[in-house]
Amino acid sequence: MNAMNVSIIVPTYKEAKNITPLSEQIDRAMKDANLTYEIIVVDDDSKDGIIEAIEKIKDRYNIELKVRKSEKGLSSAVISGFGLVTGEVVVVMDADLSHPPAKIPELVAPILDGSCDFMIGSRFVKGGSAHHFNWYRKLNAWLSKMIARPLTRVSDPMAGFFAFPGKMLNPLPALNPLGFKIGLEMIVKASPKRISEVPIQFQERLFGESKLSLKEQIYYLIHITRLFEYKYKTLAEFTKFCLIGGFGMMVDLTFVYLSMQIFVIFGIVSKLFQFRIARVIGFIFAVTSNFLLNRRFTFSRAEQGNIYRQYLSFFLVSLIGFTINWLVSVYLYEHIHFFNTHYLTAAFMGILGGTVINFMGSKLFVFKHRKSL
Q1: Which site from 137, 212, 223, 373 is most exposed, i.e. has the minimal number of CB atoms within 10 Å?
Q2: pTM here?
Q3: Using CA atoms, how far apart are residues 205 and 13, in angstroms rounded to an integer?
Q4: Rounded Cα distance, 304 and 370, in Å
């Protein structure tokens, strides 16, 4: 028995009215292209009559239904469908007829002939369109594309209509999408080498309501952050380290300022040592806040470690950076007149000097990943 040419995964929720016309159009397109197919519908327990709708048409079309009772979400529904495919090529598309079934043969042909590894039905390449989009949705699509640029250069990273070889699922990549952008997750984690796009005319849905919401847009931003961390792990950690360091710098400068004011007002420290001691006080408060925030957000995998041992290690590593930090700032303050009257600027320059050393020490020694036995 020959393998099925194409497995078409259709995640659904409250889409019962769309299943029959969708199946009719898929069947027509596939027969015209002389392709064998299966439709795999994964429904999130809609209770909208989809079971009955598929029961009526299953003798006409090669369609199967999986109803999920305990899970929800478009992306996880697609992943659930991956376990059921038998085709050489996997196609993912929406149930609402916004993705034209007539384009499936054009989408799968380059994969079947081995000339492409991942195909996208794109609204934004030449010949594609989304005429019903208002200005808000156009702006949203443009911003989404720009945000995804560090991950991929495709014109439509939010596309939900795409195809790839079934062998890409063996083994299945470690997928953990948030929201409904499973295509972008596949591009980043499966790392297809040859990606191409075909233009589609994105249509307004026939029945039901759009799943796009503010919640899904927030999920998209979180998803992009996760994928950035996956693809650029060290850069992502360094970015978060610097952002936390920026907060720590404010803590540092605040306590330097408060200490200097107290020393001047109460005269409890000689002028020669005021700034030196103020820098030490600022460092202690800053290193503590940086440790807690980095342990929680930058190197969260280390949260299971002993916090006291980690804090001591972080403090010692930070001392190396602080030594450079302190020497630079004190030298500027004591030897260059400008910095003598702008001591916060001198402290800032010192902080910059120790940042990279602190990061590398934290990554390699304090919060290093220890494999469990």
Answers
A1: 373
A2: 0.70
A3: 14
A4: 11
